[in-house]
Amino acid sequence: MILIPTKREAPASRYILLHLTPTLTSQALETQLLQEDALLRGHFRLSSGLHSDTYVQCARFLRRPDLAAPAAAELACQLRGAGLQPDVVVGPAMGGVVIGYELARQLGVPGIFTERDDAGQMTLRRGFTIEPGQKIVIAEDVVTTGKSTNEVARVLTALGAEVLAVVSLIDRTGGQAALNFPNFALLPVTAATYAPDDCPLCRAGIPVVKPGSRPEKAFS
Ligand code: ZN
What we know:
Blueprint: E1 2-5, E2 15-18, H1 26-35, E3 39-45, E4 51-56, H2 59-62, H3 65-81, E5 88-90, H4 95-107, E6 111-112, E7 114-116, E8 122-124, E9 135-143, H5 147-158, E10 162-171, E11 183-188, E12 193-194, H6 200-203
Parallel strand pairs: 5-6, 5-9, 9-10, 10-11
Antiparallel strand pairs: 1-2, 3-4, 4-12, 7-8
The structure holds zinc ion.
């Protein structure tokens, strides 16, 4: 399903719904991510301290509903193609909140999110509940290792949910994510990380950038 702006001015009728087959290709998404500085190539110092040739900040992409909606439509299309219809979409905070909500909106189901409690444990808060037997799709902006996604899945499974699939904009493992569920990513990204004292980019004399340190990177 794709939202097409109409020429009408009234906000409530600005969009008509067309049941099209979304065709957001990986290449098109990569171009959009690069244009939005959501995907950076170079030499970066990550928050973990590691150095990398790639930096991903999907919030810079997802700030634009006109880009987020077609991306979610492509994910919805892939889910439908696999015969997977969730009762609820869960988008782990923070990265999964926006794409999870937009995917839920397009699938016509509630969208909720997990978050970490004061002890650092991933949990459902804010009165969000899962009924035993409910079918769940977990939506992430980027799957980095799969570890935290599997943690979310364990929490939901312990509540009686059935996790149908994990969907994400980016699979930063380049397709090697160790997920325990069917997973769909719109763009596999291969990113190299290096210990700071054994970094070929440092040896090549390339200045290291700490993303988010510049004022215009306000979404970090
Ligand atoms: Zn380096």
